Amino acid sequence: MNNNLSKIIKLFVIPIVIFFVFFVIYKTKATNINSRYLFDEYAWIGRGYYFELLLKGDFKNNLWETYEIDGDPKLASYLYGLTLYPDYLKEKKIKGNDYDMVRYLIENNFYISGFFNNLSKQKYDKYLPENFISWQESGAPRTILLADLLKQFGGDFEKTVNIITKARLGSVVFLSLSVSVAYLIFISTFNSIIVSLLMTFLYGFSSLLTRYGLVAYSEPIYLFLFNLLLLNLFLFFSNKKQRFLFIIPSIIICAFLNQAKISGVLFLPLIIFLLIIDSFGKDIKMFFIKIFFIIYFFLLIYITIDPFLYSNTLRKVVFQYQWTHNMSVDQQTYFKSNALLKIKDKISFINKSLLNNGNQSLTPFVLSNNIYINSFIRFIKLFFIFGLIKSILEFIKEKQLTKRKVMLIVFVYFYVSLLFYLRLTWDRYLIHMLIFVFYFTGQGIMFGFQLVKYLQLKAKR
């Protein structure tokens, strides 16, 4: 009974408490008038109307027809549309059935006509009010305090700031969930509540996580799905009898992950690779059936989520990847000082961003004293190296595909992947790597505990 109670507390009660603790902290930070607004929040919030179209099953609306205009996945737009939906419904009740979410966003100074085709522009241009504030085109910096935006555009802009902070509540929920899932990943490998909680709070307070996870970006929902898929892979390889059952949620999560960020597809070959290792020397026929099942249902779910892909599916899927690639190449030209052209430069940027004393990606946002920051980074770097060495030695020693082996494989895989698709020194593209930094740091601390115990036993002899 005590053992069952301990499991319930460790695996259910603590994650729930973690969620609510971080929800309160994150909500306070994200909705603060002195929090930073980031440039792309306008586009993600401004496309929140996709949620209403999806909810109503209005799949033939011209707003979906964005071929050669917009190749972004839709999941983040759905999230911010959902977050704003209750407020929108209040307005719709007053203004009638003809009132839709695009008009609601226009009234709050969000109108991204650049993502509309000509028919949609003709329909909605007439709803632009005389007092509409074109704030995104008015020379606003790429990053600025919400309070400064309010000063710049005046009292009429207060409703726009309110929309931004309301939309961010969706980010708060998913970032809090991401931290809870991170705890479950840590506890499943460390078997130490103290170390797991320490790594969870360091992860949840890290500056890189809160910088991009508490704004209306695609990062919060991507991070949650990334961590959830990682946890699901752990469950898959720790259950020897019913492993195939875990393939189904892996496919579903992977498809949703790819609708959060187009790079989510990188998990698909990784799942297949891990299956190859696990199925080596076993039933080959069943292995190929599983591979077909994985690819087929990934595509089915991925396409189903986005009505843009319902017609001319192959052409539009190819367009999404080409559009993303072309945009990143163009950004290298536009942001020349941020361009990463050589692999050695990418390696240097990744390592410095995650483990350099002068960088504050890992530093808890509550730390401001440089002495504490430098000491903290040294602590993380030392135990990260210990943990990585420990994991490599265990990888060589262990014959079975364990959770620790899976974590090392996934880390190396995504690190190498960054060397191919990372084109700019924008640290938000590294946000998913934080889980690995704190995982290996935790492994290093566990290694330290084991070493101390070993030395104590040796001293007694």
Automatic annotation (TrEMBL):
The keyword Nucleotidyltransferase does not apply. The keyword Heme does not apply. The chain crosses the membrane at residues 6-26, 169-187, 221-238, 244-275, 287-305, 371-393, 405-424, 430-452. Keywords: Membrane, Transmembrane, Transmembrane helix. This is Glycosyltransferase RgtA/B/C/D-like domain-containing protein. It comes from Candidatus Shapirobacteria bacterium GW2011_GWE1_38_10. The lineage of its organism: Bacteria, Candidatus Shapironibacteriota.
